[in-house]
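Homework help board

Subject: predicted structure for assignment chain

Our instructor gave us this sequence and asked us to write out the predicted structure in token form, then describe one feature. I got the tokens but I'm not sure how to describe them. Can anyone check?
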Amino acid sequence: MVLLTAVVCLAGWQVWLTARLLDQDSNLEQQNAREQLGQIADLTVAQLSGSLGDWELGLRDLNVLPPLSSVASRFPPKATTILVREERIEVFPSRTLLYVPANPSFPAGVAHEFDPAEDLEFREQQYDRAIRALRPLILKSSTRPEAILRIARIENKQGHPEAALATYKTLVGEASVNSEGTSYGLLAVSAICRILVQLGRRQELVSEAELMQGGLSEGRWKMNREVFDYHWSELARFGLQIVSPPQASLEFTNVVNDLYRRWQAGRSQGQNSSGRELEPDGAILVWNSTADRISAMLTPPNWLSSGPGQVRNSGEVRWRLLASGAPNSNTGLVVTRSLADARLQGRLEFTSRQSNPWAASRRSTLLIAGAALMLVVVLGSSYVVYRAINRELRVAQLQSDFVGAVSHEFRSPLTTLRTITELLAQNRITDESRRQQSYGYLERETTRLHRLVEDLLDFGRMESGRKQYRAAAHDAFELVRGTLTEFAEQATANGFRIEPEFASGNGYPPVTIRVDEEALRRAVRNLLDNAMKYSPDCRTIWVNGSIEGDKVCISVRDQGMGIDADEQQAIFQKFVRGNAAKQSGIKGTGIGLAMVRQIVEAMHGEIRLKSEVGVGSTFTLVLPLAKNGEEPHGEDPCG
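My token output:
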């Protein structure tokens, strides 16, 4: 603050002295300043004309990007170099191209390989045979993307939108193009959005549409202008608020496309050409065209404001580009020069910086504002890094807790198995009744260990998306009764009693649902096991079954410790356990409820939770009833 005060005082003192001197020598200074400004203006225009000539010579030698150092030294700093050939467009340093002038190339001679599949799909409408005809083409790199795209389209026609979505997602990262010059990755993302519109899955649709908008804005996919405009307009149909494409990228893309058209026009007439022009943003474009390529150099916007050559180091004047017909500045000392000698339209306006004595103070204010902004950015970045590290530590802690819990869950049955096995192996159990009882213990603990391993393996398959379900029509309440019968021995051994109540029996038709029997049994067992774990006082578990409209509800209720309202959403995440359970020392892996939710959602249902601390919890599985006419035990595979 002391230094800042000193600088401000010194600047004020200089301003006061300058004002006094200007008052005394205003007439002489005005004349000398105008003469000097005129000399600077003439020198600037001459240097600009010479620089443009050097750039054109450099472009004639430009055949490779990045440019050779001998050529790059002729161009201004931060300039963009463009090299357009028939087969590709190169830009250095790299900038985003939203679209390309001509359709990207498509491998020739492969279209006929899809003829048999096309006949089966469109003419005979034998979709399964069409898919079988396309699968061998996936093994060939030249036909793989097109074959996958067609398979996904057929799966959607067959009424399997989920399968189609999964197939389309394998193409999202594909950069190659089809015969119409459109990237397969873009086609896949667009098709995914259309399917999500049909399914009414708004949240997923917005996420995919934002990915599509980001890819279009970053130039991730090669396409021509018409394809870009069409897919950009599609974003509105997918529910995004339409904004204009990135202005800087759009302007640069238009510059490159204009260069390509200029080159093609010259090639058609068999002429080589070169030229230069001013862009609307103040940049200068210089190009050189031959039969096999067109090379160009684009300066940064408003490059002229920094001045060419030696004049750029001058601290006495400033200048700006004026289009033809624009009015001159009405304040300060002004000199203008035409750019006709440099073969450019427009003129340069030169103004003495001394006409504004407060410019330095304003620049200081901007620097302070920039420093303050930098401090805010640093603090904000530090906070983001802190949050990221904190999140990673939390994940690591959850994984550590999971490993410890799983180890304990394995240790208990293994200890029992080892102890009883040693007693049996050493013939230390001579009484036949105790021997039979030991066999019962072995069977129960082996079953418990087997179920734990199966739960872990199934959870891994669910997480990776490899779990396959086989949906079949079942009587919901009969399936749950069977699960309760299997669980009864374990409940009795732990001193628990299960009280079932189902809205079925005499006078009630079967309550038919389409589910994977083993998966649903596992979900119900997990809920029963949790009810026993977290009910240390009340030894009764209530299992209810009811029908609500076109859904069946299966509830497992206990009068245990309950779950805090702030934790009721988090406990369905993997490795997450309630604080009350941890404080009570109740062991668990933290994947049971996550597995139950994944199973129920895979069967197009949902899980509900109603809980209060100290009162108990009620977990309800809500599953859709099967369509009219379906009988139990009809089966088909589903993923």
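Reply (TA_rk): Your tokens look well-formed. For the description, you could write something like this. The mean pLDDT is 77. That's the kind of observation they're looking for.
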